TrEMBL record:
This is Alcohol dehydrogenase 1. Its EC number is 1.1.1.1. One of its GO terms (cellular component) is cytosol. It comes from Adiantum capillus-veneris. Signal peptide: none annotated. GO terms for molecular function: alcohol dehydrogenase (NAD+) activity; S-(hydroxymethyl)glutathione dehydrogenase [NAD(P)+] activity; zinc ion binding. Its cofactor is Zn(2+). It is found in: Cytoplasm. Keywords: Cytoplasm, Metal-binding, NAD, Oxidoreductase, Zinc. GO terms for biological process: formaldehyde catabolic process. Residues 11-140 form the Alcohol dehydrogenase-like N-terminal domain.
Length: 380
């Protein structure tokens, strides 16, 4: 563990004291890609919750002490995308895994011994982080931040994909490929929408019990069958499901999910992130016969406009979050948490920052460099 310097927020930026951060496989995916891009050293982490410590010039939406969620995709509220009801993208402040500096001046707010450290979609593996105000969502102070951190990525992506983006109808059939946090979020959203038959597909049967508590009716392990899993699904659903969701991040699984859909109206939604250069190869006839292949970022949820609604649903016990947390660890054990994730032993592990003399444990990623962070005062 080392100390790093976190500079004051500049114009339009917010500095956040991170209290809880959970792990997402996307951090591993783009850690590996960053090795190829040369964006190192870099602070990873993007699913978190915390409290506003200070704000930069021109920031009026936030003030010191606000409870917030940093999010990886922003919302300016003014561009054509933000004003559209058809998309949750933002023209300027969208998720960008290749961006390693701040937008306003192309500089980083992190450094160690005078050397800059690159940014990554929030950089929440640090006690303090600095992000543009468009990537910050204010939340109800009465809501528990240790649970809300899950809404800043995985759960919202899954829940929104089925409930908000695909708009699964009552009585419909759904197949979910991958029963991690995103896949289980899809299941919870489909259940809220009234889906009649929710099938969960995963090669790890340890996930099946948890999946059933969140709405999955039937669990399948492709390794248990002597024929392709899409053929099994077609046989069980009278020609295929109405909706299928790819939640693994695999081009091959996208093809399988598409083949599992019913011709004429079946819709496949891509939710996972493929980090390599693999492509989906499908015959045009699959689409000529009425199937649809689409994808969504953050479940189609506009972060500032719609995340507070999900927080309210959780507070009203209409939405589950506690079920997704399988491990709770202090931050120095983040490598252990990543091992749980990579071995399929956890859904979400969140790390609690143990505050001591204003310096707490923080971490880059996957055992490369471990660091602590300190924040300079606004006048330093």
């Amino acid at each position: 563990m080392e100390d790093i310097q976190v500079d004051p927020p500049q114009k339009g930026e917010v500095r956040i004291r991170i209290l809880f951060t959970s792990l997402c496989h996307t951090d591993v995916t783009f850690w590996q890609d960053s090795l190829k891009l040369g964006l190192f050293p870099r602070i990873f982490g993007h699913e978190a919750s915390g409290i506003v410590e200070s704000v930069g010039e021109g920031v009026t939406e936030f003030q010191e002490g606000d409870h917030v969620l940093p999010v990886f995709t922003g919302e300016c509220g003014d561009c054509r995308y933000c004003k559209s009801t058809k998309s949750n993208l933002c023209k300027k402040f969208r998720g960008d895994v290749k961006r390693g500096v701040m937008i306003c001046d192309n500089k980083s707010r992190f450094s160690v011994r005078g050397k800059s450290i690159y940014f990554f979609m929030g950089s929440t593996f640090s006690e303090y982080t600095v992000v543009e105000q468009e990537y910050v969502v204010k939340v109800n102070r009465a809501a528990p931040l240790d649970k809300l951190c899950l809404l800043s990525c995985g759960v919202t992506t899954g829940l929104g994909s089925s409930w908000n983006f695909a708009k699964v109808e009552k009585g419909s059939s759904v197949a979910i490929f991958g029963l991690g946090t995103i896949g289980l979020g899809v299941a919870e959203g489909a259940k809220l929408s009234g889906a009649a038959h929710i099938i969960g597909i995963d090669t790890n049967p340890l996930k099946f019990d948890k999946a059933r508590t969140l709405g999955v009716r039937e669990c399948m392990n492709p390794n248990d069958f002597d024929r392709p899993i899409h053929e099994v699904i077609i046989g069980k659903t009278d020609g295929g499901v109405d909706y299928s969701f790819e939640c693994v991040g695999s081009a091959n699984v996208v093809q399988t999910a598409l083949l599992s859909c019913h011709e004429g109206w079946g819709k496949t939604v891509v939710c996972g992130v493929e980090g390599g250069n693999k492509t989906v190869n499908s015959h045009p006839q699959l689409f000529l016969y009425g199937r649809t292949l689409t994808g969504t970022l953050f479940g189609g949820v506009k972060p500032k406009s719609e995340l507070p609604t999900l927080v309210a649903m959780y507070m009203n016990k209409e939405l589950q979050l506690d079920q997704y947390i399988t491990h709770t660890l202090p931050f120095p054990q983040i490598n252990e948490a990543f091992e749980f994730l990579l071995q399929g032993k956890s859904l979400r592990s969140w790390e609690c920052y143990n505050i001591a003399n204003s310096v707490v444990n923080a971490h880059f990623v996957h055992g490369l460099w471990k660091r602590q962070s300190i924040a300079l005062g606004s006048n330093d």
